[in-house]
Design a protein that fits this description.
Two copies of one chain form a homodimer. Chain A is α/β, with parallel strands linked by helices and about 400 residues long. Chain A is built from 13 helices and 14 strands. Chain A has two domains: about 130 residues, Alpha-Beta Complex (Aspartate Aminotransferase, domain 1), CATH 3.90.1150.10; about 230 residues, Aspartate Aminotransferase, domain 2, CATH 3.40.640.
Chain lengths: ~400, ~400
């Protein structure tokens, strides 16, 4: 089997043959629409870089990537190119995933029992980080205004008690797809300064932003905010490289870097394979044209999902995401039978979403849909949902 | 450039063109004989497995490797196949390197200030683990009997004070190449039980054992010893896959596993790429015929080095290793000029070894030579050494 890199959309048969998590978690009669990776082949320059390594060089001894081939240099290039952000390469730390980055940043920069502020509903590893590290959950729900999701700054101020030491931030926000404005970020940054919070900012979805919106790394707002900010990012989400396990922790100051290193020596973190590094480097220098094409497709899919819901499943509350390829669908008003909408759709529609309850109790009536797939798969997912909803009243009896 | 996988010996020109650490750390006029990877291409089944992934499947979404394709299953197969050791797959933890495994095991299973017992001279990350984690070095030097390296069990007993909690063990021992006998291991295990030590056993060189010797995982000695032992291993050393970053921590009991998890949640450790996992799985099921061939070559190189030293550099004290492809060369009697033998050979012979002093103060007059290379490179390394030694008296004036 040979799959060409362009066009990047894959047939259902090719997708079903994949060995990754997305197409293997659920039985074959279920259409998966969950985990956040894309059903597309990757960018040609990335594929070429890793084929060069694997097919031509076949060099698997201890890696060495210096100069512009190094991960810190590629990260510096990308941040400058996208945000005009001049980073210090000495403050870049390689880890194998953004969730790992979240865990180690939280453990390295706070103490057990410290409060960690998050905006719920939230990507489940945020909750796991707090729970498994013995920190204390400080919850600041996003507000559904009826026309979108709003950051509740006053609520954040009220929630952040004296024992709150960390803001575990997510921008673009997963699962709501909010891309925060400069004004919102400034308010968040100011509060962090006022309350002396460390900001751990997961910006792994930063590459996935739709028309009319703009990603702003919170560390770029001011030197004062940067000095207390750890930025987590990777090429893995935008360029679809999750399995290659390569992410970056960027410390906004030497002081933060040193404080972290004293608790968790670098060797604790492990490191990425040369495959992950070469792929990330290729993505950050040469991946943007591909990403621009993918974003057009994703934006069209986003709009398609929104329109379909409006037309065929108007009982679902849904605000089209400003970024990410995830739609957060509140099914509360549908009054579906069964344990949760997740279970309903899995059993009755044979569609496998992410379960809303995993994103915190606020999410229990929601599911997260991944629309980074072919129109063929998307039509099947949405069609099955609509059919099941239509059958729901009969099922509930 | 295409490099065939067989024969596995590479030309000097091909080696010089490599992008890894070994051939790039030193200037081009220096012949490298340092970091522990091999100047050979890898086994065909491993190359095929990763080419399948990269060239055919091109699937980089979140990985999923179940059943016999999973790392725990392949580890179980390998341990059973080589040692008749029945492991529990639930006690296998994936990390990205054996040094990472050493750091996290030490930090997860002891407290700052605890004593950590090691056999010196020792692979530098052992010393770094103790220093950077704030543990206390408890030193138990190996004894040079004149005819080989001996584990000093009585010295170990004397060194292990009440505050000593961990034995950070290395078998086969790096840098001396000792492969411990069952009797030695039993004595070590008994002492660990007697003094209630956790054994963290780095066995990453276990695949590299020469005629007349046999690797015995210390955890196989008895259930009582297993219950306190963490075994660190990987396919990376024997199968030359360091850059793919895939290692295993194996906990000898559920209690040890739980104790570790409470201090360091699994997410702290990150995880290997699917490339590293698929390569390791292929190595553990299908790599042994290649390894058998490599071992013949390595054993011949080992003997060649020993004979050359005996004939041409008799002032070097050297015990041919029983395992590993590393020769530990004590140059004290040569009375070389300069800061250390490492600096002497680097500057005067243009040969880049590992510096003995990095293996602890006991190693300051030694260098570590890596003989996993072509005869062409080895001849150059040894020839340059002998020439420089011949010129040393003139240089010292």
């Amino acid at each position: 089997m040979t799959i060409t890199t362009e066009p990047f959309e894959m047939s259902l048969a090719a997708l079903r043959a994949r060995r990754g998590n997305k197409w293997n978690r659920y039985p074959a009669d279920v259409m998966p629409a969950w985990v956040a990776d894309m059903d597309f082949t990757i960018a040609e320059p990335i594929q070429r870089a890793i084929e060069k390594l694997i097919v031509e060089e076949r060099d698997y001894g201890y890696g060495y990537r210096a100069g512009e081939n190094s991960l810190p240099a590629a990260f510096a290039h990308r941040m400058n190119d996208r945000y005009g952000w001049a980073i210090d390469q000495d403050l870049v730390l390689n880890v194998t995933g953004t969730v790992q980055g979240m865990f180690v940043s939280t453990m390295g920069l706070s103490e057990p029992g410290d409060g960690v502020l998050i905006q719920t509903p939230i990507y489940p590893p945020f909750l796991m980080t707090i729970e498994k590290s013995g920190r204390r959950l400080v919850e600041n729900p996003l507000r559904d205004t009826g026309s979108g999701w709003e950051l509740d700054i006053e609520g954040m101020r009220a929630a952040a008690d004296a024992g709150t030491k960390v803001l575990l931030f997510c921008n673009p926000h997963n699962p709501t797809g909010r891309v925060y404005t400069r004004e919102e970020l400034q308010a968040v940054g100011d509060l962090a300064v006022e309350r002396d919070l460390v900001i751990i900012s997961d910006e792994v979805h930063a590459d996935l932003i739709y028309s009319g919106h703009k990603h702003i790394p919170i560390a770029t707002l001011s030197p004062e905010i940067a000095a207390r900010t750890v930025t987590l990012t990777a090429a893995s989400k935008g360029f679809n490289l999750a399995a290659l396990r390569c992410s970056v922790i960027y410390f906004g100051s030497q002081a933060l870097r040193e404080r972290f290193r004293r608790v968790l020596p670098d060797y604790v973190l492990g490191s990425s394979s040369v495959v992950g590094i070469d792929a990330t480097v290729a993505a950050w220098y040469h991946g943007q044209p591909w990403l621009d094409e993918v974003l057009k497709k994703l934006e069209a899919n986003r709009d398609y999902v929104a329109q379909f819901i409006k037309d065929q499943m108007p009982g679902i509350r849904h605000h089209p995401p400003q970024g990410t390829y995830l739609s957060w669908l509140n099914c509360e008003d549908l009054g579906l039978p069964g344990e949760s909408p997740y279970h309903f759709f899995l059993e009755e529609a044979k569609v496998g979403f992410n379960q809303g309850g995993d994103f915190g109790p606020l999410g229990k009536n929601s599911v997260r849909l991944n629309f980074a797939t072919s129109r063929e798969v998307l039509d099947e997912v949405l069609g099955r949902m609509a059919d099941a909803i239509e059958r729901a009243p009969a099922l509930a009896r």
